[in-house]
Predict the structure.
Amino acid sequence: MSWTINDFDFDLPQELIAQFPPPERTASRLLVPGAGGFRDLHFRDLPSLLSPGDLLVFNQTRVVKARLYGEKASGGRIEMLIERVIGTHAALAHVRASKSPKAGTILRVAGTEAIVEEKRDALYLLRFIGAPSVFDLMEAYGQVPLPPYIEHSADDADIERYQTVYARTPGAVAAPTAGLHFDEPLLATLRAQGIQAAFLTLHVGAGTFQPVRTERIEEHVMHSEWYDIAPETVAAISAARQRGGKVIAVGTTSVRALESAALRAAPGELLAAGAAETRIFITPGFAYKVVDRLITNFHLPKSTLLMLVSAFAGHELMRRLYVHAIEQRYRFFSYGDAMLLDQA
């Protein structure tokens, strides 16, 4: 079947776009489809839906304060979003200015100069002078880069809540939002129940918020993201399979890393360990090799993430889930509610 962008569109009332997180992480709602229909639960109910021996795979990327403000040497204001740190003093970034900066342009941020080296597609390669490191500069002067549909500026509450409790490896400009529903007591309950955990890293880029703009989805050019899967995580997944447990991806970013690693696997391997870049574009018809169940938030219309989840659970089921969620006033997107889905 040939899919068009309209197959992944829906009308969402503006008031259902969550602007703030719930008071408690596990207080978010959880929509679960099953043979008896849809179940409207809360995220704190998750342990009752899993079995001893199951394996949750979390993305432990850490959101950095990637949004910086400054000016050109000429005095014009600029906004910089660091997409990827590629060295102690170098980064790829989106730059918003009255005019696109050319190679050699000097940008000034918090007493530091960044020289525009070149443009790479939509990003600028910047070399920073006068700062200990790009990470130090962001930590001292940057803002949490909240998604474009969240209308308030990032504050102290966002610094904590737009971050998973298990975040470890800095480098993301967007949170792996399915993980925002977990708190330490819930993780402890899951461990006590015999549900295991494994971790990987995929640094989420700003491209995750970009809608597909081509009519035929196969013509879309996917953004690139860096991921790393440790041998210990590969071993944990293999062990879960051997004991009959389910491999449950926490979020679409975990799915992207796992299924990308499966495509790189040698004959006889389930997936390949190590770091790599991925441009995987998962659409209906994709053959999942690793993930059995998926915890995910509700995604933007016409987005690659909606297509990924449609490929996982089935397109018709996804349409019915979204109709139900809108009718039942679920909260959408990064600070919104979640679903627990089985592979179709």
Notes: The first strand starts at residue 29 and ends at 34. The domain at 67-141 is CATH 2.40.10.240 (Thrombin, subunit H). The CA atoms of residues 53 and 74 lie 61 Å apart.
